[in-house]
Amino acid sequence: MYIKSSTKIYSSGNISINKGTYFGNNTYVVANPESSCIKIGENCMISHDVHIRTAQYDISSIHGQIQDRKVIYGNIEIGNCVWIGKGVYIKGGVTIGANSVVTRNVSSNSVVGGIPARIIK
In this model, does residue 115 exceed pLDDT 70? Predict the structure, then answer.
């Protein structure tokens, strides 16, 4: 495993990272709360400025007062030999096989792109 010094990994939950995985600069891997889980497979390449976070704000509550905003939690699973490109944000509740802004599951051997991610082939 190779982790750049500017990569940050925080967890009150469970994070498992398998052998051969690379993390680029300014990447964040955050598993909160204690019941959350991030699993990253073998030989993955996670580029620079990537955010992998099990918690995020519910968009429908974003215009309310800060104390009223709802947080959504979900586990994340990244398969083996996955390349995640620069600047990708992976939110909780998804299982992925490739890069982009991913808001739902992506099946193995798929190529996705765009924001939000759509299957290209």
Answer: no
